[in-house]
Amino acid sequence: MKKRKIIIRILIALWLCLIWGHSLQPAVVSEAESGKFLAILGKIFPFLLNTDFGMFIVRKAAHFAEYFILGVLLCMNFQMDLYGIVNRLSVPVLVGTFVAFIDETIQLFVIGRSGEIRDMWIDFVGVALGTLIVLAVVNNKRGRKRY
C-alpha cells in the first residue's frame, strides 16, 4: 500500500475518533465547548450572541464542518480505487452517511444528548460537498494533463 494511502487512512481513523468522541461528551461538556466557539465568533458576528440562534448555528456548523472534512478524506481514500464518477461520488457519501448514523445513535446513549435526523441531513450535505469538491479538483487536474 502506498504511503499516501496509509496516511489518509490514519487521518480518517483519527477524524472518526474526533467525531465520535464529541458525540460521547455529555450535553453540558458539549455545550461548553460550543460556547467557547460562540464567544469567538461573537466578536466577529455580534448578532450571534443575542439569542439561542447563535448556539444553534455554531452547533450545526460544527456538524457540517466535521463531515465536510470527512468527505474530503473519504474521497481522497477511495478516488484511486474506484472507477466512474458515480462510484467515486456515491461510495464516500454512503460511508459518510453510515458514520453519521452511528454518530447520532451514539448520542442516544449519552446524558442530555439526542440523535437527530436533522443532524444526519447536515452531516450528509457536509460529506457530499467535501466529496464533490475533491472530485472537481481531481478531475480538473486530470483535464489539464491531457493538453
Write a structural description:
With 147 residues, this protein is mainly α. The protein has one domain (3-27, 59-145). 80% of the residues lie in helices and 0% in strands. It has five helices and no strands. The chain has helices at residues 3-23, 27-44, 52-78, 85-107, 117-145. The chain is globular and about 50 Å long. The mean pLDDT is 91.
Please tag this protein with its features:
mainly alpha, 80% helix, 0% strand, globular, 147 residues
Mean pLDDT: 91
The value of Rg in angstroms is 17 Å
Strand residue percentage: under 5%
List the helices and strands in order.
HHHHH
Unreliable stretches: none
Number of domains: 1
Shape descriptor reads globular
Put simply, the count of helices is 5
The level of helicity is over 70%
Distance between the terminal alpha carbons, to the nearest Å?
30 Å
Number of strands: 0
Largest sheet: none
Task: Report the structural category.
Answer: mainly alpha
